[in-house]
Amino acid sequence: MPIHYWGQPYIQCDMKKYAKWIPFAAVVLFVVCVAIFVLPMLQYSGESEGSDSQKAVLTMWHVESFEGGSTSRRDWLLRRAAEWEKSNKGMYINITTYTYEQAVEMLNKGYTFDIISFGVGLGSELLGKLVPWDRADVWDNFAQSATVEGKLLALPYMSGAYMLFARQDVVKLSEPQQLVDKCLTFDITKRIGKNTVKLLSLDSGFVAFNNPVGALAMQGITGSLAVDTTKTQYNAYEAFVSSNKSVVLLGTQRDLYRLSNREKQGKISPLVYASLVQYTDLAQYVGVCADSKYIQLAQAFCYTLIDDKAQATLYSTGMFSVVLDDIYTDERYRALQMALQNSYVANVFRDASTIQADRQSALNTVNGK
């Protein structure tokens, strides 16, 4: 008579009838257990993080916070990621570009990353979220710009620089130092239609967190200067090119690229250039999230961004190396590149209030207050 177990009939059987199958079933059970539990453990114990048989997708945020070659910087990272993936089978890096505002929104919503590329402004939002680095094979001034309380929190991997530009036929100067000395003293008017317009002696643009006036102050330039922080760097460039609004442009390496091309094409009269290499806040950094599952892999990729091979390719972006002092043949870029290793580099982890205070302090210094 059947016995019910948990509401289902349990059929009594003759164990002698099935006894001959017991050894075979035991062998099958043993093989299944080895396949499910033992082999994966042996496989894992024989591998290190990043081996060929592993697969991992690393999330990288690329946050743009200063004008001047944002597309070329992203494309440079994409090329470095493709090279790394080729050398590390099964490893992938998914790069997404964000503005400062978008990145802050993502962080506030609890989203995270494995690697983040960032510049001035976002650093304070990342404090407490990044893994400290044991070393940085970069120039010391750039390493110090990513150090907080003795801890290196990010790797600098490229930099920009500030410059002065003027038309030689307008300022009647040809030497860079003359332009530095006189950039705030030009008193030039121009006839435009029926009106006579007084040109700004010096014009500059801003983004949310950069401080071009800091470059003037660190260079020891003084005079009368008023600034419009709502004007973008590209607005200032366009005003300078129009020749109807300003005599001197305080710009960046991006303006060097644009204006050099115009000069070569005969679209602008010959220019005089002066480098303001005592100060920069136009560096880009990479950090690794402390909560990442792939910290060692992420750090390994980041280190490839500052090796000599990668740094030598920065000429394609118009940016400058933080490791090598000679990646350009063009004498203007070459001089900037070599001088940057002695620049004061603003700390990337300053908060917004500190950045604003530094801006005002620089303006006061230039105006002799």
What would you say this structure looks like, in words?
- The strands form six sheets. A five-stranded mixed β-sheet has the order 4-3-5-16-8. It has a four-stranded mixed β-sheet with strand order 12-13-9-14, with helices on both faces. Strands 1-2 form a two-stranded antiparallel sheet.
- Residues 1-19 and 31-53 have low confidence and may be disordered.
- Helix 9 packs across helix 15.
- It is of the alpha/beta class.
- The protein is elongated, with a radius of gyration of 30 Å.
- The longest helix is centred in the N-terminal third of the chain and has 24 residues, at 22-45.
- The protein has 15 helices and 17 strands.
Structural class: alpha/beta
Mean pLDDT: 87
Strand tally, please?
17
Rg over C-alpha atoms, rounded to the nearest angstrom: 30 Å
**Fraction in beta strands:** 15-25%
The backbone outline, from C-alpha atoms, is elongated
How would you write the strand order of the largest sheet? 4-3-5-16-8
- Low-confidence residue ranges: 1-19, 31-53
Largest sheet entry:
5 strands, mixed
Euclidean distance between termini CA atoms:
106 Å
Helix content: 25-40%
Multimeric state: single chain
User: Helix count?
Assistant: 15
